[in-house]
Amino acid sequence: MYSYMKKQLFFLIWLLVFYAGNAQSSKYIKGEVKDSVRINNADASETYASYVPSAYDESKRWPVVYVFDPSGNGQEAIKRFTAGAEEYGYVVIASNTVKNGSYQENFMKISKLLNDVNASFSVAPDRIVFAGFSGGARLATSSAVLAKNISAVIGCGASFDIGGEYMPVKNTFMYIGLIGDEDFNYIEMLDGIYYLNSRNFDSELFFFNGGHEWPNEEYISKALRTLTVKYMAKGLVTRNESLLERCFQKDFNFADELYNKGELVNSYEAFEALIENYKFFKEVDSLKDKMKEIKRSKLYKAQLSEYRRVYQAETLYREDYYSFLPGDIELADTRNLTYWSDEIEKINELEKSPKLENQKMAKRLKGLLGGLAKMYENQLIPETQAESLLFINIFYTLLTPDKNEPYLKTVQLSTLLGKYDMALYYLEELLKKGYKDVAVLDNLEGIALLRISTEYNDLLTKYNLRTRY
To answer: SUPFAM superfamilies recorded for this chain (predicted)?
Structure first.
């Protein structure tokens, strides 16, 4: 299957070289997003959102960015690319069909998508970009590894599986990573960039303030701007002095703003990237002097030391969580929840720390634990793995005690398993939080036997809630 898909995607990219330029206006509206474009010769449900810049001209070939959202919401994802696409001249295609799931099925869908875009737009075959968020970012990198002729990947909110089947090995594409500083995949993205650099990939990583989410338009535009400059350096785009100067000024301002905000490590790396990207076009000695100034700063040294400390600590936490949580969920021994209660308390203490980097690490670790638990929960079969589901929902009550749903599900599952004392305990914990929606409790499936018990009704009475019996 791997060999077949590899050949198919290679053939697909080969087609782009020979059949580009046969545009059909029904597939786009210049300067506007077209939400649900049908793919020819495909199921009616297979659609994509398209955007072409106002200056789009069929007589020229244009770089194309294919965007993969983990939930297949191309209409929402494409909005983040339109500003940069308009300014730097990119066609953007965001699939409404490709989403988290089987890679083989997604490879087939991507094949159909590429064929349709190739037949409908004027494509520059040497400037094809795959982009994605979270699972879509992993898919974008995996697809680029298979296809070989992809020029760049823009990975947002996730990296790739180091050591996995679709791990990048040969530097056949450029890579730009974008990650929120509170995203639970933050360490994974750092490790991915370290790996790519060790393999001599042309790779960069930008950080933004936020969690596990698409970056805003400013950062997507920076990614597209960076690619535009790199394409000029490689001779894939005709050198444009006015555009280069505009790009340089924006990238300089980006690095300088980080400096002015006191983010000296990020500023240093931004100036370093500025030198690398523009050294063929401009004199950069003054930028080197700026980097020396930053590096001599006590604040820079302190921040670098702090980042390294957090990286090492968070890596250890992550290794433990990946090692222990799956086994505990499978074993479903609720006594092991004592360990997780202690771990979550440690994270809560980190979140209260006066050190900002500790606070961010705490948010990332909570996100990681929640994401891991959700991943395993989605794989469980309620009829045969109720004990594991119960474990996960009690785990959620520890991790996110402000949410009501885990308590309600714990009451349901405990009753289903005949653990009435446990069901009553978590019901009271829910009521202690001020929960008052008796209508939801009255209609909660699977707790009929609990609902008619004296203990249940006594609890409702204790918290001044209406009883049915």
So the answer is: alpha/beta-Hydrolases
